[in-house]
Amino acid sequence: MNDNSNKELYRVIFVLGPPGCGKNTQCDRLKEYFNLVHFSAGDLLREEVNNPESTQGQLINEYIKAGTIVPVRITCSLIKNAMEKAGGSKNIYIIDGFPRNKENLDGWLDTFKDTCKIICVLLLECPEKDCSDRILFRGQGSGRIDDNREVLTKRFNVFQGETMPNIMEMEKLTKIVKVDSSKSKDEVFKSASEKISILINNQ
């Protein structure tokens, strides 16, 4: 999976953290700083929901409304298609909100097999209260169906019960870069960019 001898590898940085930890914000900044291609698993799923020609959109919408994880085969196919359209192995991709559980990780490994190098997992750590305050504030104008307290509670439970154990599992595959995302956006970016820069420069 992480064999450097193949120059045609898809190279990825996964970004994970509890809902409201600032994944999209930091990915946008890291994308510009390192000239990466950014994909959000959640955004790709929502785009599919909004695509009137998609046969998967309605099914995905039901999972999102329930605050549960979309089946891995759907998410992996959307990510791989997006990566291929963006240039394949020519770029380094930063992907946030994935893989959220072991099924996601197994699906990723099965989809990409030995064609992908995981540079690292960026874990944005933030207390639940801070995350909740951010999301409920965002929900006042976002229009997102999952920006409410009931779904938020489910999402936190999923993160603690499924994503954190999966991150521990991923330590066997790659480096876990931990950053305190309860700080200001600039402080979070400074810490994340400094740590990731070392790994990217070693490619």
Report the sheet with the most strands, covering strand number, pairing sense and barrel closure: 5 strands, parallel
CATH superfamily: P-loop containing nucleotide triphosphate hydrolases
Low-pLDDT parts are 2-6
Shape: globular
CATH class: Alpha Beta
Spatial strand arrangement across the major sheet: 2-3-1-4-5
Account of the protein in words:
The two termini are 14 Å apart. The longest helix has 22 residues, at 149-170. This protein has helices at 23-34, 41-49, 57-66, 72-86, 102-112, 128-142, 149-170, 185-201, and strands spanning 10-16, 37-40, 92-96, 116-125, 175-180. The model is unreliable at 2-6 (pLDDT under 50). A 5-stranded parallel β-sheet has the order 2-3-1-4-5, sandwiched between helices. The protein has one domain: P-loop containing nucleotide triphosphate hydrolases (Rossmann fold), CATH 3.40.50.300. The radius of gyration is 16 Å and the shape is globular. It has 203 residues and is α/β, with parallel strands linked by helices.
Structural features:
alpha/beta, 8 helices, single chain, disordered N terminus, Rossmann fold, 203 residues, 16% strand, five-stranded parallel β-sheet
